[in-house]
Amino acid sequence: MDFLKNTHYQFIERRKTAFICSAIVILAGLLSLIIRGGPNYGIDFEGGTLIQLKFLEPVEVSSMRDILKSIDYGDAIIQRFGTEKEVLIRVKEAESASAPGKGVADQILSAIHASVGDPEAGGGKLDINAAGPAELALNLKTLEAFKDNAEAANSLGLAIVEARNKAEGQFASLDELSAISGMPPEAVKYFKNNAYISKFIVTRQEMVGPKVGKDLRGKAVLAIFWAVLGILVYISLRFRFRFAVAAIVALIHDVAITLGIFSIFDREISLTIIAALLTIVGYSLNDTIVVFDRIRENSKALRSLPLIEQLDVSINQTLARTILTSLTTFIVVFVLFVMGGEVIRDFALALIIGIVVGTYSSIFVASPILYEWERLSIGRSKKKHVSSGSSAA
Taking the complete model, does pTM exceed 0.90, yes or no? Predict the structure, then answer.
């Protein structure tokens, strides 16, 4: 990377162009938030129910929509999750007061069972695709071969679950039980009479009450506030107050752009994203501190140079370190985004945006703001000096 060696780029002179670019992106995000009526909060902050389902056969999102419309949940958010066999259903609303924490999920699952043809669901039979090892062992203990051998029943229950996991979490037929090591014929016969294979399994289910969601939202805002306040105090003590203000403005810039892009693409804001934003704050600050430390050193070593040249030299001296660190981090997070799965994809996306914007802000936002502060301070000092001289005359 020869373009990073002995660089002499004039970053501060391009500050106005950078400020305009940042303002356009931030305003686009704000406009998106206004049009959408605020951030697209996940159930963590709004309250509601989330259900992730995995079917034995590919399922159409439109068919799920029709099922939910039949029970008055047509406004639920339904999206494919990873494969054609998985869907994610979000119902963002307060749960039934008469059955808090379970009413919505029960209605949805019952409607889907009825639609996909699971006649045994809720009919007293054991769902082999949903039962855990303890429940399976309890059923096995009713058999003569396991009545006095709880250890064998527990071991076989675990073996059934392990076999189910190898079959991607679901058996397609009860006949698959026959292939499990240690499974006696009478146990297979028992399950065929007393159990059934569901057409889908629940791989994730979360429920958050509206009051809890509101409380979490408040705590998330406080977490960001205290983090920023702590940074302000630290940098004021480590450097000077004007350095702290420049760093905080850069951090607010990074968070604002990340939230704006999430709003533009209608991505959900959840507790995971708040964790990503706090990570972005720490990452961006690290880059900014490195540049500021070099600026402080050069303010003595290069005091004969104009301030704008001191800042440009400092940024250029740390440029290779900044770009290489950001690039290596970006590669890791990008791989996480591509291969990490749907659950952490938004988290990785927020970090990708944060790395790019944080690197940009440490060069084109924090240092230029410091320059503008110093320039205005010098201008005020000169005016004060001239004013004092005129008064003395």
Answer: no
